[in-house]
Specification:
By secondary structure, the protein is of the alpha+beta class. The chain is built from 13 helices and 24 strands. β1 and β2 (68-76) form a beta hairpin.
Length: 549
């Protein structure tokens, strides 16, 4: 039991450490009155000729209901950038102040953008309470657009909005609700808040505890937020959870974005444990206007940190190129209306869309099948395991180490023979006859046996070499909380991935019932059975941009 406790503590500690790193870059002095220029001679990134081309003002911006929001405005000098200018609204991440964007705002202003950076209500010196992308937060965006309209230098046909994490979700909601905003960039954001927090009615307790802890420590968290998360933890009032989440989910406003074909840039990381890219893929698939989805290695919002510190990084380059194209009219990107961009170990790949998981592979069980006949036919029978126990398969180590693994491409590895088949069902594919390129979301079809107690299944997908060493490609969890008298088919969708399987490697799926990432829904051991046969096989579906297997 001690190893479970340490792994859970590690995830909570790692999540908190990531937050503190971000917060340390953002804790700043008290705000000033409207219109006062606080740092007119502050050092900053300047133009190519070494000169600063803008002035900065720190403001207390008065929102639609009188709440004051801490903001900074960066306005290019008219002598350097005459005529109407495009404007960008930058919405800060969870718990941090507007100054987290200073370096990027300097660069944008030196290119001629009028930049309005602000902290959402309840955070970073702003008044109000944090209700997580509430209708008031969306109205705040429109209030900012109203204020920009009073500046004669702002070209109201060229307004953009962008944010990281919390700011990304607000940015997409703002784009949907205010037709004056032309385009948006969402980095490490969410599309469906219920899917992000409560997918398959299962929580990620480490991240949830960090969210509540940091929100209360560094902001003014609304009591409503704590109550919603209590409902999720207790799996009650599901209708109220859905209603609260739907109001805050950009995917439910995609029709408003499509109505005017607004261009949208999305970026998430393969190993994002908080807002996994799979729920953003659903939004991307529904968008009908110009769109680009960039997916890179890393955990939640890790890949943006170099850019916040002033170093070049791909996600900032691509997002700024996006705005340059749609707000400055620079022809700098792919002409295709839809682009999925994968960052892999070999470079960057562009596809027109996410490949469908169409090619299927019938998986062979490695567990001994329990049959009703006397011949112990290994082609048909039950896999019986004990639930509520750890098999040794895992989504990763302590969150800090897991983040380093993702950032420095040190993947989670596991000897497949060391996964305890008393507690996990294990399946394998034949060896790959040719290299396999997986790009997108693989899916696993399994047949779950009758059960009286709730069942939690965590599936892990490995690429396994000739020595039996497995490299984790992705994972996901599902629950079936209702009693079943008959067989039930389940589809488990893995995380978005870009994986190259060498010749001879096998794909292995291990499926157990416990992982430190997820809440353990059972307080004691329980039986789990999986049916496998030629007519109802365990099947892996692969998204392949190349020819099928």
């Amino acid at each position: 039991m001690l190893h479970r406790m340490f792994r859970r503590l590690g995830r909570s500690f790692g999540a908190t450490l990531l937050a503190l790193i971000a917060t340390a870059t953002a804790m700043q002095p008290a705000r000033a009155s409207i219109g006062e220029e606080i740092f007119p001679d502050e050092e900053c990134d300047c133009g190519e000729d070494g000169f600063k081309r803008f002035q900065r003002q720190n403001l207390e911006f008065v929102a639609h209901d009188g709440v004051k929001l801490a903001a900074s405005v960066f306005e290019p000098y008219p002598a350097d950038f005459p005529g109407p200018r495009p404007a960008l609204i930058l919405v800060t991440p969870w718990v941090v102040s507007r100054r987290v964007y200073d370096i990027q705002a300097f660069k944008l202003a030196n290119k001629g953008y009028i930049v309005f950076s602000y902290s959402p209500r309840g955070f970073g010196g702003s008044e109000g309470v944090v209700s997580i992308a509430s209708p008031d937060d969306v109205k705040d965006v429109s209030s900012i657009v109203d204020a920009l309209a009073t500046n004669p230098r702002v070209d109201m046909s060229r307004i953009g909005i962008a944010g990281i994490s919390y700011g990304a979700g607000i940015s997409l909601l703002g784009l949907a609700h205010d037709a004056r905003i032309k385009t948006a960039a969402s980095v490490s954001g969410w599309a469906d808040l219920e899917q992000a927090f409560f997918s398959s009615r299962i929580l990620k307790p480490g991240w949830l505890k960090w969210l509540i802890f940091s929100g209360r420590l560094l902001g003014r968290l609304s009591p409503e937020v704590g109550e919603v998360f209590n409902r999720m933890q207790q799996v009650r009032d599901l209708g109220q959870i859905s209603a609260w989440s739907n109001l805050r989910s950009p995917i439910n406003r995609v029709g408003l974005i499509n109505r005017r074909q607004a261009p949208v840039f999305l970026a998430n990381s393969f190993d994002d444990e908080f807002f996994n890219p799979g729920q953003m893929k659903a939004l991307f698939d529904q968008l009908t206007g110009p769109k680009l989805f960039y997916v890179d290695p890393g955990n939640h919002a890790i890949s943006v940190i170099p850019g916040l510190a002033g170093f070049r990084c791909a996600v900032w380059d691509y997002s700024q190129q996006w705005f340059d194209r749609w707000l400055l009219g620079i022809d700098n990107g792919p002409s295709a209306p839809s682009v999925v961009r994968f960052k892999t170990a070999k470079g960057v790949e562009d596809l027109p869309r996410f490949p469908d998981p169409l090619p299927s592979v019938a998986m062979k069980p490695l567990n001994t099948l329990v049959t009703s006949g006397t011949d112990n036919d290994q082609a048909e029978g039950w896999i019986q395991i004990k639930g509520g126990r750890d098999s040794g398969a895992t989504s990763g180590h302590f969150a800090v180490i897991g983040t380093l693994e993702a950032l420095f491409r040190r993947p989670v590895r596991k000897k497949i023979s060391e996964i305890d088949r008393n507690f996990a069902a294990v399946f394998e594919s034949p060896g790959a006859p040719t290299p396999i390129r997986i790009r997108g979301v693989p899916a696993l079809d399994v047949v779950l046996g009758p059960h009286q107690t709730p069942v939690e299944l965590v599936a892990y997908l490995y690429s396994v070499d000739e020595k039996g060493q497995g490299t984790l490609l992705g994972y996901n969890a599902v629950t079936d909380r209702e009693p079943r008298q008959d067989l039930s088919k389940l589809r488990i969708k893995f995380t978005v991935m870009a994986a190259d399987i060498p010749v001879g490697h096998r794909l292995v799926v291990a499926m157990d019932t416990w992982d430190p990432m997820y809440e353990n829904i059972a307080s004691q051991e329980y039986p789990v059975s999986v049916w496998h046969s030629q007519t109802m096989p365990t099947t892996l579906h692969l998204p392949l941009p190349d020819a099928p297997l």
